[in-house]
Amino acid sequence: MSEAIHAVDLHQVSFRYAPGAPLALDRVSAQLPAGAITAILGPNGSGKSTLLHVLLGLLPPLAGKVRIMGRPHGAYARREMSRILGLVPQDEHVTFDLSVLEYALLGRAPYLELLQTPRPADRALANRMLAAVGIAELARRPVPSLSGGERQLATVARALTQEPRLLLLDEPTSHLDLANSRRVLRVLRSLCRAGRTIICTTHDPNAATAIADQVMLMRAGRVIAAGPTPRVMTTRALSATYGVPVEVVRVRGRPLVLNHDLGDPGKPHTDQTRTIMLGR
């Protein structure tokens, strides 16, 4: 496949964590475009995080093929791959008393020789990324002293400092309040406009509709639907993905997902609707 068309090409990819265990990924096939934001959406246990780790090469597929930027995983040297792929995990534990700036500078490791210290240009880039996610004032703070939301922003800044061509994020807004969630989503959108490819997982459909060009819906390790966000984010597809009734309506030209509370069967759905919306 051409790099200009597909950043990731998955063909019948399967994976299980132990012999005899259920498949965490069950014959997953998808083509994720370059220069776009793709959201992998599904409930807990649907295989979203597993798929990211397969893309990174941390988990070898039981079957199937994975191509990154048009080439098989094994065709890349380790350093080359670390310049192409970057990851923001759900939780990244930092046990050393690194400052936030020092932690962000870890993203420059693929560009430095063994024992080489970061250059002024590396430090300038790290400081810009801290500012981009709104934590420039925390640059001297030890990472272990940060709140959960601050640590998540520092992890995003570290990944951005790596300057990967393809950035993977596992539930990037899960620990963030509304203001910081919007900030991160806007940073991701600006990166995409600059030519980066973004692939993120989320269980929140409205976070996906806020920024994603493409959506892949997963349930029990399988792909339910994949394609452009307006076409995939439908009432029928999302209800099948989550196993509960939801409704998709249009607000300002984009899908908004309504989660109906069925706790009181005596009331109609429209009387008991809860929504969460993250704007661009």
Can you lay out the helices and strands and say which pair or pack?
Blueprint: E1 6-15, E2 25-33, E3 37-41, H1 48-56, E4 63-68, E5 71-72, H2 78-84, E6 85-88, H3 100-105, H4 120-132, H5 148-161, E7 166-170, H6 178-193, E8 197-202, H7 205-211, E9 214-219, E10 222-228, H8 229-232, H9 235-242, E11 246-251, E12 254-260, E13 273-274
Parallel strand pairs: 3-8, 3-9, 6-7, 7-8
Antiparallel strand pairs: 1-2, 1-4, 4-5, 9-10, 11-12, 12-13
Helix pairs in contact: 4-5
- Strands in their spatial order, largest beta sheet: 6-7-8-3-9-10
Largest sheet: number of strands, sense, barrel closure: 6 strands, mixed
Average pLDDT = 86
Helicity range of the residues? 25-40%
Features:
9 helices, four-stranded antiparallel sheet, disordered C terminus, 30% helix, single chain, 280 residues, six-stranded mixed sheet, alpha/beta
